[in-house]
Amino acid sequence: MEGAEVKVWRRAERERLIALRQGLPAAQRHNWSAQIDAALRGILAKRPGILGVYWPFRAEFDPRPLPVVIDKKCPLEYRAWRPGDKLVDGVWNIPIPEKRDIVTPALVLAPLVGFDEACYRLGYGGGYFDRTLAVLSPRVFAIGVGFEVQRIATIYPQSFDIAMDLIVTETGIRERSAGTARSIAG
Questions:
Q1: Per DSSP, what are the bridge partners of residue 68?
Q2: Whether the Cβ atoms of residue 78 and residue 105 lie closer than 8 Å to each other
Q3: Which of 17, 58, 80, 109 has a C-alpha 20 to 30 A away from that of 66?
Q4: CA 56/CA 33 separation, integer angstroms
């Protein structure tokens, strides 16, 4: 599959996977999220530093603080945030910290619409996380977060796609190392 075919396939696969995730019973997503939370806490305990995450959207796993979309063609901007800090509406009415206290994360959580065995993520198609990972220096440790039902055979990675270092789902953790992925917990 090439070029335009991949683009069409990815668009259709995004729609299918988002509908699948949103169609899951809330109690099931809650239980799976608790398992993901426990796995992430174990990972983060071993990797101190600023953590960049996303605001939950369309039935995603819910982490916070958050990145900020400044412009639809630019990387994300990470702002410091703590519970109680004032939020304002950002792009797509997703809340963002009002105070522009920019930080550079050492680790980034990235939401998964889909993912494959090589730890590539299929996102919403805007390219925000790939652009962000490409410009952060030094290279951050990238963790894709989602549910196992979102795993697909391949996302048909393109030249701009950046593989995650880890993928965390309710069934365990996949690690990408030396171009391959392996399950390390679950």
A1: 77
A2: yes
A3: 17
A4: 12
The DSSP letter of residue 65 is S
Handedness of CA 126, 130, 133, 134 (dihedral sign): negative
Chain-centroid distance of CA 49 in Å reads 18
What is the Cα–Cα distance from 78 to 57, expressed in whole angstroms? 17
H/E/C letters for each residue in 130-147? HHHHHHCCCCCEEEEECC
Rg, C-alpha atoms of the chain: 16
Q: Helix, strand, or coil here: 78?
A: strand
Q: Can you give the pLDDT of all 186 residues of the chain as single tens digits?
A: 788 999 999 999 999 999 999 999 999 999 999 999 899 889 988 987 888 877 777 888 777 533 544 566 777 788 887 888 898 887 767 778 889 888 888 999 999 999 999 999 999 888 888 888 998 888 899 999 999 999 999 999 999 999 999 999 999 999 997 555 666 655
Residue type, 24: L
Q: How many CB atoms lie within 10 A of CB 68?
A: 19
Report which of 112, 125, 147 is spatially closest to residue 26, judged by C-alpha positions.
Answer: 147
Q: How far apart are CA 66 and CA 113, in angstroms?
A: 18
Smallest CA-to-CA distance from 47 within 57, 36, 39, 55 is with: 39
Strand 172-177 with 121-122, pairing: unpaired
